[in-house]
Amino acid sequence: MEVEAIAALRPRLGRYLGAFDGCFGRREPAEHLRTYIRGQLSDLPRKSIEPMALHSGTPPRTLQQFLAAAHWEQEAMRDQLQQRVAARWSHREAIGILDETSFPKKGRQTPGVKRQYCGALGKQDNCTVTVHLAYSAPGGFRTLLDGELFLPEDWSADRARCRAAGIPQTMVYRPKWQIAVELRDRAVANGVGLPWLSFDEGYGLSPEFHRALDQRGQRYVGEVPCNFYGWCQVPPALRKAHHPEVVGRPKVKSLPAGRVDDLARHSPAFYQQPWQRFYIKDSSKGPIVWEARSAGFALSSGGWPSRPLTLIVARNLLDLAEIKYFVSNAPANTPLQELLRVGFGRYPIERCFEDDKTEIGLNHFEVRNYRSLQRHLILSAVSLLFLAEVRQEDRGEKSGTDGLPGADGRRGDDQFLGLG
């Protein structure tokens, strides 16, 4: 942001940051919070600790200590942020979005760094990966609620290396989907209503992830890969007197599960119904239109069928080779239009990552311990939420809206528009 814009917003920023003063026991770290956030909101080309500190006339060592060693409750700050979103921006059509982002890093000392797939570069390279939960509501409101480091297996096995990076002994390797479930649980515990959850196929490929969300009563529409397995026609239970049943689950006949791309092509549940055409949104190249079908589905988890779900197949009308597959646990009578609104509603988290990296400096951190990285993620979310609130308030959007359409029938610039 420009210097003049920051100066004009300073009173609002002061009131906003005052809501987080309870996270600090003393005045000094609370003042360092203001220095850090103002640095992230400034027009500095590089927003790592040293340029932000020098810009504010603060010794760089002071801000380093603020991240690494000063006594303040970063978890309380995260909770306060989530409670603020719950109180001010709750909406019955909101979507929680799970995704990850990566940070190219050199060397071996940044927590979690290793040669792995780096989305920022589109290839395998040395990077750190973090998993995030975003919140998107009609009217264009979007922000990041939480983030956590993905700890690779080789890091987890090397406890000496973890200790050197300040990674707690209790923190071990977990698949990204398990981290995602934890982020969801934390937000819900802080009162954030998540009517829907959405995720890409990197998370949707795990049947255990689907089961974990379903057990929590969390409605979701998530993308799955084409080689995701399940049934459109669930095989009947097999009950034989001389075969004891598996405790809690009856055996099923040996009807093999099929890949979702094969089911979409060959199952009567799909090919006997017409495609429905949906207008998604406008783009710089014109309207984006997809066709979709849906049918009952049970995913395969260890060879056992899940409870009844819905499988959605969608193809791009301008490129029929581009096909997406979604699975949802929503009630069977949920309109396909609503399922696609959620399934195609993931792009706000990409905008959050872009805003956080280009405007806030999320990817500018230069730290070598886990606490500093964790605090940087939380502080960056605090800065991003301030920008989100300023944008909405200056556009005249009100918090806590009821989700009803306006006079023109539109609900916001980020909405799935419907049947075409």
How is the topology of this model organized?
Layout (H helix, E strand, L loop, with lengths): L2 H16 L8 H15 L7 H8 L3 H9 L5 H15 L6 E10 L9 E5 L4 E15 L3 E9 L3 H5 L1 H6 L11 H14 L6 E4 L1 H4 L2 H9 L4 E5 L4 E3 L5 E2 L12 E2 L5 E2 H7 L1 H4 L4 E8 L2 E16 L2 E2 L3 E8 L2 E10 L7 H8 L3 H14 L9 H25 L23 E2 L1
Parallel strand pairs: 1-5, 5-6
Antiparallel strand pairs: 1-3, 2-3, 3-4, 6-15, 7-10, 7-12, 8-9, 11-12, 11-16, 12-13, 12-14, 14-15
Helix pairs in contact: 2-3, 2-15, 3-4, 5-15, 14-15
Count the helices. How many? 15
User: What is the count of distinct domains?
Assistant: 3
Calculate the terminal CA-CA distance, rounded to whole Å: 40 Å
Shape: globular
**Helix fraction?**
25-40%
Q: Would you tell me the overall average pLDDT? A: 89
Our estimate of the beta-strand percent is: 15-25%
Secondary-structure class: alpha+beta
Largest sheet: 14 strands, mixed
Low-pLDDT residue intervals, each spanning 5 or more residues: 238-242, 400-417
Cα radius of gyration in angstroms? 23 Å
Count the beta strands.
Answer: 16
